[in-house]
Amino acid sequence: AGEVPAPPRAGAAPKMAEAAGGGSVPVLFCFSVFARPSSVPHGAGYELLIQKFLSLYGDQIDMHRKFVVQIFAEEWSQYIDLPKGFLVSERCKVRLVPLQIQMTTLGNLTPASTVFFCCDMQERFRPAIKYFGDIISVGQRLLQGARLLGIPVIVTEQYPKGLGSTVQEIDLTGAKLVLPKTKFSMLLPEVEAALAEIPGVRSVVLFGVETHVCIQQTALELIGRGLEVHIVADATSSRSMMDRMFALERLARTGIIVTTSEAILLQLVADKEHPKFKEIQNLIKASAPESGLLSKV
What we know:
Layout: E1 24-31, E2 34-41, H1 46-57, E3 65-73, E4 78-81, E5 92-102, E6 114-119, H2 132-149, E7 153-158, H3 160-163, E8 177-181, H4 189-197, E9 203-209, H5 211-224, E10 228-237, H6 241-253, E11 257-259, H7 261-269, H8 277-286
Parallel strand pairs: 1-5, 6-7, 6-9, 7-8, 9-10, 10-11
Antiparallel strand pairs: 1-2, 3-4, 3-5
Helix pairs in contact: 2-7, 2-8, 5-6, 7-8
Protein name: Isochorismatase domain-containing protein 1
Pfam families: Isochorismatase
Domain Isochorismatase-like: 114-262
């Protein structure tokens, strides 16, 4: 979300809440041309207001912009910047204002600030997912690279009781987490806890299936939490190439980086003199399927 500006001059701000009481307070949430009534718990502050804006307008908000939250002040008959420490105590009207300066997504990757997410590469998907053999091969290459570079790996399996475990070709040795799920997004409470334990995580490299369902929903939740997301185009697919294509286009428009496995691995080593460069280079040379999958991006 955006930054909290400096508090306005004394006397300009609405009253602060004395204490966070029970119940909820009606709030009108305004963004662009939209205005939607909702409510927040009594005593809610900046973070809860931002979460509510995201839940109401997530599809319209460009997460790579800076924002100011403002509240309508009756005494001034206009919106003013939300002061630090503000708590909702009574019915009010707030708005989210994007600043004109856009934050550039640079897409820099370093092993120390990166986590790999491997999503639902399971046996029962094998006959249904287009180019599944190829994305298995690329996914295995990525996991080998992660082990070489000491990058944590988080793996999920969608309803493994019915859909089977991760395919045997993918070696999960050393994975930080391997979790079953029923939720489409990978962002389970255990995953969020694991991310919180890894110091300095800034970027997630995401691959698996299906592009338009679990990959898309995971990516959107991750950027909603302020993480940079790199989707590996040659390691993700769907049953339908149309679903895959439109999902990648939509995600790219939100600021998510759509890239390739070779670009990821070479960006992580960054220098021919890196001690693992030769091993990473051999990985790339050994497995580079020419399936036509990337022509479907």
